[in-house]
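Re: your question from the hallway

Yes, I did run it. Sequences:
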Amino acid sequence: QVQLVQSGAEVKEPGASVRVSCKASGYTFTSYYIDWVRQAPGQGLEWMGTINSSGGSTTYAQKFQGRVTMTRDMSTSTVYMELSSLRPDDTAVYYCARARPGAWARVRFVFEYWGQGTLVTASS
Amino acid sequence: QSVLTQPPSVSAAPGQKVTISCSGSSSNIGNNYVSWYQQLPGTAPKLLIYDNDKRPSGIPDRFSGSKSATSATLGITGLQTGDEADYYCGTWDGSLSAGVFGGGTKLTVL
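Structure:
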């Protein structure tokens, strides 16, 4: 069965960086893009970006350009999301989600499988 | 402020029907597929509807989706207390080259 298992909760000081991992299993890792979506406490879902698990190409939401880096390790079927220069308003649950197959981003934007979420707290 | 607009809350009695709207523009809903997600408290979102009106396997036909021009609607019939959750619409925005979600709608089954 398809599973996305994320790393544990993190507490970071403002200005620091955080890296969250998402280990995939139960399917051919390189056949699907992985997206990252975050949710601040009591707020809605916010799309951060996507990574091609095969070629490694990325597309980031403009809001996070310059602060987010998504990478993948094909040997361990793991995707990483690193967010730098953390601010208190980056406190949120971060989810990875497997995108639907497709040649175009607008077709791939459907998420049937999600990780369990990782709480990142940015606080001094 | 979300690109897609949803009502903050809706409510209805058990057994009744409810609809949740999602309003966008030609750069998002108007030219792309819409999906809907259910999020129970403390859990990850769950895909309910994709490609405007299709249900993944395992999703009961009490849940339905539709799209017209730049708006989409999620319908839930035969409401159950277990349907109490937050519901989100989502799609791709071609102008932003980014995925976008609605602000979410909290469903209360009275």
